[in-house]
Specification:
Blueprint lengths: L4 E4 L3 H9 L4 E4 L5 H8 L6 E4 L8 E4 L2 E5 L4 H5 L2 H6 L1 H9 L3 H6 L2 H5 L26 H4 L23 H6 L3 E6 L2 E6 H4 L18 E8 L6 E7 L10 E10 L2 E10 L6 E2 L1 H7 L6 H11 L11 H18 L4
Parallel strand pairs: 1-3, 2-3
Antiparallel strand pairs: 4-5, 5-8, 6-7, 6-8, 9-10, 10-11, 11-12
Helix pairs in contact: 11-12, 12-13
Length: about 325
Amino acid sequence: MSTVEYVRAQDVPGAIALVAADVAAAYLAGGTTQVDLLLKDGVGEATRLVDIGRLPLAGTEQVGDVLRVRALTTMADLAEDPVVIARLPLVREALLAGASPQLRNMATIGGNLLQRTRCRYFRDRRVTACNKRRPGSGCAAVHGPARMHAILGASENCIALHASDLCVPLVALDAVVHLQGTGGSRTVPLTAFYRVPSQRPDVENVLEHGELVTHVDVPLLPSGMRSAYLKVRDRASYEFALTSAAAALSVEDGTIRTPRLALGGVGTIPWRAREAEDVLRDAPATADTFRAAAEAAVRDPFTVPGTEFKVELAKRTIVRVLKDVSGVPS
């Protein structure tokens, strides 16, 4: 593994300039991803880390019906934010389910959005067939033991899973990411931020080199909407999701209004289930409707030996969370 140089940024423009000028440079915030990749797994590409941990990019602010979350806000701080507790239960539940208390005190929101896959083939540098690390080399996970892998947005080129819990409700809520680079600032809907692997599994998002996530705008749920995040995992303590679902909706006279649904544990990216939302919208709040939505959400999955179980488990997860938020008895 190459020696990694450490530089502390003094301000936002300086940090951006340092990273943009060096193709082998990357940002360092909480370090829970970079430290794993570079120091533990030895698969990271960066040889220079620019520490942005002391820049003024932490904290939250309510702006009308939007919660502005700055990139260096920790998971722990966001989970205890009064606005999140009152208006965004699904976000808080995902934060609390997403890591150990120690990690939540370190991990930042910006870093969570950019965390790399937990695919063991990607993180084992002895594995040569990994299109995400070495484009064109193949995907060992397709032919090897697979369990914690994706079935939606996957193909023979890559089945690496996007492991974030937090991004699942953020995608459901139509959160917007604010970016700053040498060419100025821009905004990207989180639903358009990630790229399905397709022919280029190594290209994971729309970030240009040197661009910095400065904050995320999260729309607040209207009064009367109920929401929840349900995570299915092998053990109750810190563990990644086998399947998960974030849902928000309101029910008026037995009819579903303004449904929002996103899935985790099954997608190569945080998966917005728009086809399921179409099934739910203006439909009766019944178990049959929820099952129909689940069928629409997990249509045409790409499975390999070891991931077939996720198809039915994901559907049951969707039905369960929809029953919870709608008040329909199980």
